[in-house]
Design goal:
A four-stranded mixed β-sheet has the order 1-14-16-15, with helices on one face. Strands 3-4-2-13 form a four-stranded mixed β-sheet, with helices on one face. The protein starts with 18 loop residues before the first strand and ends in a 7-residue tail after the last helix. Helix 5 runs parallel beside helix 6 and helix 8 runs parallel beside helix 10. Strand 7 and strand 8 form a beta hairpin. By secondary structure, the protein is an alpha/beta fold. It has eleven helices and 18 strands. The structure holds uridine-diphosphate-N-acetylglucosamine. Uridine-diphosphate-N-acetylglucosamine binds next to helix 5 and helix 6.
Length: about 350
């Protein structure tokens, strides 16, 4: 609540800069929510650290608690998740509709409990987000689906391995099939798998739990199923958020100045850093993060979003904001989510020239 806004909830931004100093990049939203969902797969107490202070962690916690785990947060960046194995594989509408990542309980619950009742997922408001690839892959592994009244019901007495080839490297579908395959009978291969750093983080987490996964970090994953008793709880530090790191870079780019981004992982951002250097930013990888300096007016570039290691669609609002104060004309092409341009109308209200 901002007193200057007459009681309405809003953020007032005043022109400032240049920016100077250090900022810590926390763990990735797009990883921690998936790690939390994967904790449904084994009994015991998981400790997940480097947890970001974001609302979605609270919503995912509520969802997992409704399913049957207990979660404590001894400090803001740590989650202790206790799984006794007494799970009710039902994910209610009120929670699922609030975050897209709730779809990630599908694979773990199905493989652990043999059935799931899940409200169809909501999340960000940028167009239809189908789950046909999740469904087709799980069907190939022996699942039967029923859809009615906005709910999905899935049944599989015991999943079996399958050879799955995606026609597009979907992040969510890769994660759901990966988790399902960990406890399936036999070997599953996923070809044209997504290979985002957050998928590598999930693979590392599952391997610590006792999963057998080959090809981590590549687009061909091979998963050899294990018995449920072979998985156990583990401790894990969430990978740094490359989108948040890019957000700080964009702030520095627009306001000018020099920032040190502690814990940023420049090796996860090769392509975007190369393109931001093309715009004139000074970006230097450090042993403990990344330094960004912006001293002159940026130049425009053309950018197209692509699956990793291409430019992530999540960077696009940042890049468009940077382009709006750069010299020249830049063309931005979205290849993942056609509706993901809504903020452009808001930028236009700040008198940016979009042709
Ligand atoms: C995740 C990220 C999101 C990011 C996106 C792409 C989370 C919570 N969200 O979303 O921030 O923008 O990756 O990097 O991790 N598709 C289908 N059928 C499917 C699945 C996906 O057609 O069954 C399409 C989607 O509509 C979209 C594209 O594939 O056009 C990418 O989707 P996907 O990679 O699955 O993204 P998410 O996991 O939803």
């Amino acid at each position: 609540m901002n007193p200057e806004s007459g009681g309405e909830c809003c953020i007032t931004v005043r022109r400032a800069g240049p920016l100077e100093g250090e900022v810590v990049v926390p763990g990735a939203k797009n990883s921690v929510l998936k790690l939390m969902a994967a904790s449904l797969m084994a009994d015991g107490v998981f400790e997940i650290t480097n947890v970001p202070a974001i609302a979605d962690v609270g919503i995912m916690s509520e969802l997992l608690c409704a399913i049957g785990v207990t979660i404590n947060r001894p400090n803001v960046d740590t989650l202790m998740i206790s799984n006794s194995g007494e799970l009710t594989p039902v994910a209610p509408y009120e929670l699922v509709e609030r975050i897209r990542a709730s779809i990630n309980v599908l694979g773990p619950l199905l493989t652990r409990c043999g059935h799931v009742r899940l409200s169809l997922p909501g999340g960000d408001d940028f167009g239809a987000r189908p789950i046909d690839m999740h469904v087709a892959g799980l069907e190939a592994m022996g699942t039967t689906f029923k859809f009615s009244h906005g709910y999905l019901e899935a049944y599989a007495d015991r999943l079996h391995g399958a050879d799955i080839t995606f026609d597009f490297p979907s992040v969510g579908a890769t994660e759901n099939l990966l988790t399902a395959a960990v406890l399936a009978d036999g070997v599953t291969t996923i070809d044209n798998a997504a290979r985002e750093p957050e998928i590598i983080d999930l693979c590392d987490f599952l391997i610590k739990m006792g999963a057998r996964i080959d090809g981590v970090g590549t687009s061909h994953l091979t998963i050899e199923g294990v018995r449920p008793g072979e998985l156990h709880a583990c401790d894990h530090e969430t990978v740094a958020d490359r989108i948040q790191a890019a957000t700080y870079i964009a702030a520095c780019a627009v306001a000018g100045g020099e920032l040190t981004l502690l814990n940023a992982q420049p090796r996860h951002m090769d392509m975007v850093l190369a393109r931001l250097r093309d715009m004139g930013l000074d970006l230097e990888p450090l042993p403990f993060g990344l330094r960004v300096a912006s001293c002159e007016r940026m130049r425009s570039i053309d950018v197209a979003t692509l699956p990793y290691p291409g430019i992530a669609t999540d960077y696009k609002p940042l890049i468009i904001t940077m382009l709006s104060v750069a010299s020249g004309v830049g063309i931005v092409t979205e290849n993942l989510y056609p509706g993901r341009f809504r903020y452009v109308e808001e930028l236009q209200r700040l008198v940016v020239d979009f042709r």
